[in-house]
Amino acid sequence: MNDITLRSACDLGRAIRSRELSSRELLQAFTARIEKYNPSLNAVVTLDLERAARRAFEADEATAQGKSWGSLHGLPITIKDSLETAGLKTTAGFPPLASHVPTSSAVAVQRAVDAGAIVFGKTNLPVLAGDWQSYNPLFGVTNNPWNSERTPGGSSGGSATALAAGFTSFEIGSDIGGSIRVPANWCGVYGHKPTHGIIPERGHIPGPPGMLSEADLSVIGPLARSAEDLDLLLGVMAGPRPDRARAWNLTLPPPRAKSLRDYRIAAWLDDASFAVDTSVGAVLGQAVASLRGAGAVVDEDARPGFSLGEIVDVYLQLLYPVFLAGFPARTFAELTELARTFPADAADPVALMARYGTATHRDWLGANEVREHARAAFADFFTRYDVLLLPVSQVPAIPHDHSEPFVGRTLVINGETQSYTDLFAWIAPATAALLPATSAPIGRTAGGLPVGIQIVAPYLEDRTAIDFARRLSEVIGGFVAPPL
Fold first, then answer.
1. Does any domain span residue 207?
2. CATH number at residue 15
3. What is the distance between the alpha carbons of residues 390 and 456, in angstroms, rounded to a whole number?
4. pLDDT in tens, 22-75
């Protein structure tokens, strides 16, 4: 991997510090690669090269004087277009925000800038970050770098594509429905969904610009070309919001093990209720075989005390109220009426969205109590195991499908038609239980599409998930650039 644009952020940072490479040279290399490949991928949708070039010059001047701005000194980066960035158009793909230029940055973005990163562009996403495909009326469709007829995933699809294509040092995305993990999985890069609450969400759209409260389930986290990068970026972005830092701070525990063989590994790689396509299952199975070949013990029968169907159901009860909170009052009233037309046990996607999304606070409290029991079951499970391996999704990157309504779309899994919303299934356990989960690339299907594995770790033990991803890469290899 000789092209500097495809090296890890840690590698690039070391090269800048040693003056092997300048920040300006790296920015120019990313820009040249964007000019060459972005027209066919449409990952980067807004550029701010003049300001970035000035900042890169200042970074190089500081380096020459023996000074450093921080652990991300001089690294040019792009940012998902749902994260507000001072002085740079931030639209979330939503036409009413087409001209929105924030005066301040999201907390996570500002922390990266304060550590020395240089923002030079924004990356594409679905409207208001609400889909597993990245397209919107403002900027159009983003293509998967491995196959342009397929989606890179969403909602951080532009982020994952930019990384895989060598357009940026690293990316910052967000995740409530797999929006970091699914694109990382489908583009062959790394992504980390942090423990809920450890990286402030302020400055993320949705909610609307200026919103102070933070949503249940939703997180902001890093995407990168190596697990080492994820650990670096987690250290930069994690910590209390500024208004809370007077009273508490965050010290994440170190990884639970010091070698791959020391990890107590559980694997839940298929389930009758949400079957995994054989093309994906074969790659997952090869990864487990490689772990065993390296001396690790993997328990494929271990389960955390609840069924996949149970955790998916409670996740949807918690998720849909967040999704529908921003809907206009008239639309919400129509959905409330729609919910009353379905039988109480109706389980099709439209019925679930209407019923759960318009539930009463009393209903939500009941779902939250079920969630807390699931969290307790996970806590007990992680006294016997250190990590739980899950699929990220049942299928590799899917063909573009922009048909409406969203809930009417379908997937083909092992020759059978399934609901598009079944993509919620395997990301639900970690999200509902507020746990950290790392998506790590593990290979490609027979058709050449990337497959990742999801590494779930105990609450607040993000470094365990990331460390396991790093050790796994030493056995099966890590990021591989797509043949653009």
1. yes
2. 3.90.1300.10
3. 8
4. 999 999 999 999 999 999 999 999 999 999 999 999 999 999 999 999 999 999
β 219-224/190-193 pair status: antiparallel
DSSP state of 381: H
| pLDDT over threshold 80, residue 2 | no
Query: What whole-number distance in Å separates Cα of residue 163 and Cα of residue 66?
Result: 29
Distances (CA, A) of 460 to 415, 424, 433, 468: 39, 23, 12, 15
Active site residue ranges: 80, 155, 179
Single-letter residue type at 483? P
pLDDT at 1 over 70: no
Is 12 in contact with 75 (CB distance < 8 Å)? yes
User: What pLDDT score was predicted for residue 326?
Assistant: 85
Question: 90 lies in a domain?
Answer: yes
**What backbone phi and psi angles, to 5 degrees, belong to 223?**
-125, 145
Euclidean distance between the first and final Cα of the chain, in Å? 14
Measured between alpha carbons, how far is 299 from 20 in angstroms, rounded to an integer? Answer: 45
Q: How many domains does the chain have?
A: 1
Rounded mean pLDDT, 269-278: 98
Quote the tokens at residue 32. Answer: 């040249």
Residues 78-119: pLDDT tens digits?
999 999 999 999 999 999 999 999 999 999 999 999 999 999
Residue 120 lies in a domain: yes
Q: Which pLDDT tens digit goes with each residue over 159-198?
A: 999 999 999 999 999 999 999 999 999 999 999 999 999 9
**Which among 434, 458, 193, 426 has a CA at the least distance from the CA of 308?**
426
For residue 386, CA distances in Å to 306, 464, 465 come to 18, 8, 9
Q: Which structural domain, as residue segments, surrounds residue 187?
A: 4-256
- Could you give the 3-state DSSP secondary structure of residue 9? helix
Q: How many CB atoms lie within 10 A of CB 254?
A: 11
Note if the pTM is more than 0.90. yes
Q: Which amino acid appears at position 317 of this protein? A: Q
The distance from CA 377 to its chain's CA centroid, rounded to whole angstroms, is 25
Quick one: DSSP state of residue 184?
H
Place of tokens 């009463």: 360
Q: Which residues contact 238 (CB under 8 A, 6 or more apart)?
A: 194, 198, 199, 250, 252, 462
| 170 is a domain residue | yes
